[in-house]
């Protein structure tokens, strides 16, 4: 399989030209396992939050691999690429599905996983679910951090436990934006790939309902999640989608003004690492 090392920017965030299969293959490759960098499943909420929160936006624009998680983000990126003549574009990589895919495919290579995030009850249920669905998966450590910022000593102790576990991959399920910030920090301090996967822990553990496959195929998972948790998610699926629409319009207008000058240039579809702020291959 040839892995596309190109990236397309939306709201300043570089997204790799990868689909689910290519992303899982890259993460589990010698290159992926041997490169201590954060991986982020970036959805519409992440994009809009990064656009108005400079500190978080700098994380998304920084070192690491950004994957398009969610139909609105994938559609926008596909449209940008098509309008600029790129023959490929970032495909949707759904976080929970990516988590399960890597767990499944990593078994044959003996990949060791560390799970960081969620409640103790969720982690217990998650380990049971992994053992049932993906027997032979090596889970070498789990940790449920408190719902508050950790002290420097607590972070140092946590990092030491992760390093001593011998984990090849660290999965981070702490919610946005905390998980993306923590994944970037862990990649530096632990020296392992750290993947921020959102609600993947809860879905696989069964502690939160997951949309049926047919709902996911129709790109209506957002509606299912909204109906399941309306009080928590109403703002994300109303105000944030309006903000996303504004960003999309701005991006398309900016693209229309710059396409003649950018034909064949570094805006869309160039190898990662050739543009300042790009994601290393």
**Alpha plus pi helix count:** 14
Q: Helicity range of the residues?
A: 40-55%
Order the strands across the largest sheet as they lie in space.
Answer: 4-3-8-7-5-6
Rg is 18 Å
Structural class: alpha/beta
Fraction of residues in β-strands: 5-15%
Count of the domains: 1
Quaternary state of the chains: single chain
- β-strand number: 9
Concise description?
The chain is of the alpha/beta class and about 280 residues long.
Structure description:
- This protein is of the alpha/beta class.
- The protein has one domain (25-257).
- The protein contains 14 helices and 9 strands.
- The protein has helices at residues 20-28, 30-33, 44-52, 54-61, 71-83, 95-105, 120-133, 152-165, 178-190, 200-205, 213-217, 221-228, 230-233, 239-262, and strands at residues 6-10, 13-16, 38-42, 65-68, 112-117, 138-143, 169-173, 194-196, 268-271.
- Helix 3 crosses helix 4.
- The model is unreliable at 261-267 and 273-281 (pLDDT under 50).
